[in-house]
Each structure stands twice: as structure tokens, then as C-alpha cells.
Amino acid sequence: GNFGNPYGMFAQGFQNNQAAQMGMQFAGSAMNAMQENVQQNVGRYVSLSQLKHYFDVSNIYVLSKLKLILFPWLQKNWHRHAERDPTGQVVGYKSPREDTNSPDLYIPVMALVSYVIAIGLVIGRAGVFHPEDLGYTASSALGIIIFEVLLVKMFCYLLNVGSELQFLDILAYSGYKFVATIIVVLLKPWASWWLTWLAFLYFGFALAFFMIRSMRHALIPESSSVTGINVHRKRRIHFLFVIAMMQFLYMWI
Questions:
Q1: pLDDT digits (tens, 9 = 90+) for 77-99
Q2: Alpha-carbon distance 179 to 115, whole Å?
Q3: What 3-state DSSP class applies to 175?
Q4: Fewest beta carbons less than 10 Å away: which of 19, 132, 167, 253?
């Protein structure tokens, strides 16, 4: 939502006590439609076994991940745990259930749906709710994710980043921003302007720090003694910094 004025994009209407309830109903319908659309089309691009890995979460993982996103400064170890076959060969990474540092898609999906519902509640409280606002909000949020994923994939190609950063990893990292954005959105109507700004700045820096530490292992190699690799390392560091700083822009939009 626009940070300066959460209601500026919507026409004024009169106060309706049932507006918030209507928002919840339409948000629920939108969620069901999104789920059906995802189930019908996701198989064209991603295998179900891959998706299962990203949705293999537990309650403990979800709580730990939310803490990691909102308070990333408390985390000391950011390395992901490797998954090995019986011969000891690395075949991938452990699932989110087994590793808090592993990206998942459960939290991003729930955060996105909650964000749309939160916008509906805020608009309903202002008495200016229109059903199409939820569709606009969902479309805008998905547009931001698609833009960021495509941008990251393009730079990964230009910087010769291979399989270290998978498409679904990028999708997961992009979706985590809505966890913090929900808090800022809900603060706008009820909290003072300075508290809302403080929350925006804090969660913006928290997201930036989280993105840098989470994606660093894939974008920036640990050992780089060759000059050519050092050049790529500097470019990747700059790119990672740009990704992190753009989280402020995404939250503002």
C-alpha cells in the first residue's frame, strides 16, 4: 500500500459497518480462486516433488522463521544444512522442517493472503471498501513478486550464478516481505505517524539484512582466489546490496 496515504487511491464513500465483513468474504473468495489457479498451472513449470519440499514445514519452523524475518540480527548461523545420500554425496538442502535457514513457500503464501485481507480490513474500517480493491491489491502484490523474481533471475544469468539459487528460492525470499508489510499496513490507521514511520524503517532494514544474509551463500562464493572470480564477487556484492535496498521500495509501493 502507498505509505504516505493508505486510502488515497480509493474514492471516498460513506461509512458502512458491514464493509469489513464484506472485505473478509471477498478475500476468502480471492484466496480460493488463487489456490485453484495455482494448482491448475503450477505443474507446468515446477514438479510437485519440489513444491512438497518447500511446503514441508512445522509449527516450530514457522515461529522460528517469523522471528528470523522480523529480528534477523539475533541469528548467528545463516548456513543451510546439506542433504546427503547414503554414500555421503550432497544431493541438495534439508527441508524447512529440518533447517530454519531453508526457504519455504508456506509463509510467503500465507503472508500474501493475509496482506490482502489486512488491506481489506483497513479499507473497510475507513468505509470506502469496494470488492475490486482486493483484486487490485492481490494483482499489485503478485506483480511486485514477479518483477523481483525476474530481476533477480536476469542478474543471476548475467553474473553466472548457477544452481546455487533456485527459482523457488527466489520466489520464497521475495514473498517474505509481506510478513513485515502486514504489520506496517495495520499500524497506519491506528498508530501515530511517527510510530508507523519507525516501523517502516525498522522492518525495511530488517528485510534488507535478512535478504543479504539469506542470499549471500548463493550469490557470493566463500573462496575466490582467482582474479576473475574476485571481479564477479564484487559485482555480486553490489547486486545483493541493490536487492536488499529495494525492499524499502517494495514496502512503500
A1: 988 888 887 887 777 888 899 99
A2: 8
A3: helix
A4: 132
